[in-house]
Amino acid sequence: MIRITFDSVFIFLLLTMHWIMFSGTIIVILLTNDLSILTVANLFLYLVLIMNLIFGDCPISIIEKQYLGSTMMDNFSNIISNNIKNNFPLKQEINSSLQWILMAIMVCTTKVILLLIRHTFHAFLIE
pLDDT (tens digit, 9 = 90+) per residue, 83-124? Predict the structure, then answer.
C-alpha cells in the first residue's frame, strides 16, 4: 500500500512538474512585455531543445514513459491531433515534443521582434 501511494504521488509530481514547465513558460511569454524576461525564456527554451536532441527525448518524458507507459507530451499531442505528414526520421514521441518546443521558441522570438519593432517605431515617431 505504501509503495502504491509513493508511486502515485511521484507520478503526480512528475506530471505536475512537466506541465508547469511547459505551460508556465508559455504563459510567461504571452503575458510579459519585458525584453530581458523574454530573452531568458527564449534561452531556457533553446536549452530544453538542446537537451531533447542530446538525450533523444526530454529527461522528464523518459522517466514518465518508464513509470506510466506514455508521456504528458504524447497525450497532449494526441488530444490536439495534427494532420501534418511525418517526414522526419525521428521517433513520433520526439517529433511531437520538438514541434511544441519549436512552436514556443517561434512565439517567443516573434514577440521579441514585435517589441523591438514597436520600440523602434515609437522612437522614430517621437523624433
Answer: 445 554 445 555 667 777 888 899 999 999 999 898 888 877
- Residue numbers of the domain that contains 69: 2-126
User: Number of structural domains, the chain?
Assistant: 1
3-class DSSP string for the chain: CHHHHHHHHHHHHHHHHHHHHHHHHHHHHHHCCCHHHHHHHHHHHHHHHHHHHHHCCCHHHHHHHHHHCCCHHHHHHHHCCCCCCCCCCCCHHHHHHHHHHHHHHHHHHHHHHHHHHHHHHHHHHHC
Prediction pTM value: 0.68
- Each residue's pLDDT tens digit, 27-76: 999 999 999 999 999 999 999 888 888 877 777 777 777 777 777 666 66
